[in-house]
Design goal:
Chain lengths: ~475, ~475
């Protein structure tokens, strides 16, 4: 893919970036009035409309605000974000009465309650999804499908859908064909198929720490052992650390989320991804790359995947549309490299095939370009919400609170006072109809007892602000 | 459920049964002319319409045929069915060049080719499914669903669907509520979840011999060992034999298809089912009951399930709508008894949840009584086809051919000359665009090399007849 030159960007974006830089280096301080739209237009030689667009963009990012009949003011400085949470050091003592498994059940069985402000789920709210357009594609599928979606789908997945999913890899420099893709029921089934294709019960699998609980739970359920590797809040896991561990442990596979890890939100830089792939290729250890959040980036370009550095087929790329488009459609996929044949066999054995109609509908939706259009809006909304939530935490939580700085995805990782027990906080917050995910559930050993995962999927509104205020005051009370 | 008295049946059915008995005891021989419709009506004191209905019924069963401008003639006598195939004795020598796994791939990857007469797949043709009505239910679901089916479904399954599936158990005397049911992606996922809930890698699981290859493949893929128990062509597995084996082997679970086993078509009588459940309950060994064909019965009443004798929760009942209603919708379910909590956890871990819209659509379809209506037609069609195919085999295959006598389901099990290699026959038949399932694939060790599984799912027509004729002549040629 050709890299964009700066000049390719629309003018309003260039103007906005100039202003953002001035806010960043505090040339413009919080509370400062910005030039009027007319002045800005004259100063830069741009139309009033373009000047307005630049301010609108900065407002969307939460950096400036308009005050009625007065103009635009600097509202926030990205430099003033809270400090970063720490990497995992060693298991911290956890003073709780319930097991991690029980916590997970308790926290996530309530997710559908509507009277809650729910910060615990890392999934898009329906309001951010293109429901009407998807309905159209489904009705189209119903009409276009030869047998009304009644027949068994190919085990490998609908050929048209596989072609569209292969084309998505273009965004990160991957060149694949329909034959390289295997459709699954969401990303979780994808991970299970990949683990089964690459390991035997009793094997050791390297995972991130902290990580999504679904990953270590399924590893345990497959009779595998998990070896946890600490995640840096910005750059993810360290390939050198993995190399050291490879000397000591018989690691048979890795499951990592290199782009916007969950819950840390970190993104491995390109050179680290490349080094990781070179390392696992040298050792012939399959890397299962969970890229479920890869399309929800806030920067200008989609981060590359580990798969894009994979020359020998040792990377099994997994993704899904559950976080970006349609959780209830259960569409995930794998590009399994050298394990493709085995993965197809496993899919056939374990669930025969996927749902015919939803695959056909999504194939149609992707083929008419709707997904790209939708993603652009979703990314912008999530970026804005991420910044707003960070401001809210800064405003309402104690000053020593540390917060991750995700460059994509759905969640913030919040580190609180060492004394605080996040599961107790979860239970207290529940009494106020606010739900958060306590840090304990993101490691098999119940570490991170003083951390929270806070989803910013819900668009900012007064209820969200009030919920953050409540959380803040509960934290203050419990830290005393 | 109240048992029907004979007097409950419509009069035409009583008349037809009387005639069937006369054909059975050869009072009426093949080729005999039957009384005219008018004579029949006078003889029995019934209306002409009722008399016609009786003949129509017997014609549907393939017992009589109408000759233009002449009347009805006896066409077939059920007593003249071919002999029954044998139970498995010991592994027979198999002279093939390919592994069983390769055979399975070869045979079943071609299933969607439309220029084939395909006897290899045990699934309903789309022409026998209520496509238009299902479409209506899907569009209804799209409109009625709060979030257009975009949200994650409950891991346990849509509550309305679970209620409807619980009600289906009424037909075999089961009384369950929505909480007792777990929805899965078809019956295969149901079996996998049940096996995972009840066993550890390395455990031994008792299965039928012959059995559906999907069962021993998935057992192997889960790191389990399969112990095969011979199936009687009429009465299925023998609980006493299982009891003997329990003394010798550390069996940790059983996977049986007690009603219309695949490929044998046998149905365990009630007292055997009851004895089996008592046995496994005494030994506290979970019985995974695959009842996927249970609703496709040809007799007057739905056979009871093992689950209906289960008082202690050791039976995990599995079924699906893939064979009876909508393969592509991927709707299966489990009533897991004492393993319910564990099964729900596994479902959550492995695929999170099922497809929201198809679950909603099927819930609607079942709730308005359409399924029952459809099943009545499907059962009748399958019964007719079963008899017609048996006649076809009698007509075109060598006289020593043995054929199963299923009382339900989709398939005939055909035993040929000991010298014949069914996989070679499969390959020869393929050259004539006819596909059959060679017996070898129905046991892990490649037994049954001289058997075929022949599906009668496709309604009888000239092409089917021609395909059977071709098979017959290939068999004669290869047996020489």
């Amino acid at each position: 893919m050709k890299k964009k030159k700066p000049g390719d960007d629309p003018i309003y974006l260039q103007v906005a970036e100039g202003l953002e830089k001035m806010i960043g280096d505090e040339t413009l301080k919080i509370g400062d009035k910005l030039p009027s739209v007319r002045m800005l237009s004259e100063e830069y030689g741009i139309s009033m409309g373009t000047a307005f667009q630049a301010y609108y963009h900065l407002e969307g990012k939460g950096l400036i605000e308009s005050r009625p009949k007065s103009g635009y003011y600097v509202r926030f400085n990205l430099r003033r974000l809270p400090g970063l949470p720490h990497k995992a050091v060693e298991p911290e003592p956890v003073a709780t009465e319930v097991s991690v498994a029980e916590m997970i059940t308790n926290v996530f069985q309530r997710t559908s309650r509507e009277d809650f402000v729910n910060f615990s789920v890392a999934a898009p709210p329906i309001s951010l999804l293109p429901a009407a357009k998807l309905n159209k594609s489904l009705v189209h599928a119903l009409r276009a499908s030869r047998n009304h979606g009644l027949q068994y789908e190919h085990s490998q997945g609908n050929p048209g859908l596989r072609r569209q999913l292969a084309l998505l890899a273009f965004h990160w420099g991957g060149k694949y064909a329909a034959e390289d893709v295997v459709v699954t029921a969401g990303c979780m089934e994808a991970l299970v198929m990949c683990l089964k294709a690459t390991t035997q019960p009793g094997d050791t699998v390297a995972i991130e720490n902290p990580t999504y609980f679904g990953i270590y739970q399924v590893i345990e359920s497959l009779g595998l052992k998990a070896l946890e590797i600490a995640v840096d809040p910005l750059t993810g896991i360290d390939p050198q650390q993995l190399e050291t561990l490879l000397q000591k442990f018989p690691i048979k596979a890795c499951v990592f989320v290199p782009t916007f890890s969950n819950p840390m939100g970190s993104c491995m830089p390109d050179e680290k991804k490349k080094a990781l792939v070179q390392l696992i290729t040298r050792h012939q250890i399959p890397l299962i790359e969970d890229d479920i959040y890869g399309e929800m980036y806030f920067g200008r370009h989609r981060p590359r995947t580990c798969k894009s550095f994979d020359t020998e087929g040792w990377v099994l790329y997994c993704s899904s549309l559950s976080k970006s488009l349609a959780p209830g459609y259960r569409i995930g996929w794998i590009i399994p490299g050298r394990f493709t044949k085995r993965v197809i066999q496993l899919k056939m054995m374990h669930t025969v095939s996927g749902t015919t109609l939803t695959q056909e509908a999504i194939a149609h939706f992707l083929s008419i370009g709707r997904y790209e259009y939708h993603l652009k809006k979703l990314r912008k909304a999530l970026h804005t919400q991420c910044l707003r939530y960070q401001q809210g935490i800064l405003q309402y939580f104690p000053p020593d609170t540390k917060v991750s700085r995700p460059q994509g995805g759905f969640v913030l990782w919040v580190q609180l006072d060492r004394q605080l027990n996040a599961y107790r906080l979860y239970r207290e917050a529940l009494k106020h109809n606010v739900s958060v995910a306590p840090g304990q559930v993101f490691s098999a050993k119940g570490q991170f007892g003083n951390c929270l995962r806070l989803s910013y999927a819900r668009p900012w509104d007064a209820e969200v602000e009030e919920a953050l205020r409540i959380l803040g005051s509960l934290i203050r009370k419990m830290s005393k």
